[in-house]
Amino acid sequence: MLNNIGLPGLLLIAVVVLVLFGRGKISSLMGEVGKGITAFKKGVKDGSEEIENNLESARDVTPEATEKDKV
């Protein structure tokens, strides 16, 4: 169904959306989408940095083998 929508169809849809919502509402919506994307990227970056910090502070906690254990 959506395979038949060409450039004229997309332009018509864009004009209808612009008439229904107005330019101010659409621009504020796009601003909120941009803020959401920025916040998501920041969250992913902070999460990966936290994982890297946890890996650096990880240490081996296995007990040392004693002479008694080796037998």
Automatic annotation (TrEMBL):
Localization annotation: Cell membrane
Entry keyword Phosphoprotein: no
Record's protein name: Sec-independent protein translocase protein TatA
Primary subcellular site in the record, as a coarse category: membrane
HAMAP family, per the entry: TatA_E (MF_00236)
Gene that encodes it: tatA
Composition bias, Basic and acidic residues: 57-71
Source organism of this protein record: Actibacterium naphthalenivorans
Keyword Transport belongs to the record: yes
Family: Belongs to the TatA/E family.
Pfam (any one): TatA_B_E
Keywords: Cell membrane, Membrane, Protein transport, Translocation, Transmembrane, Transmembrane helix, Transport
Transmembrane segment boundaries: 6-22
Region (Disordered): 52-71
One of the record's GO cellular component terms: TAT protein transport complex
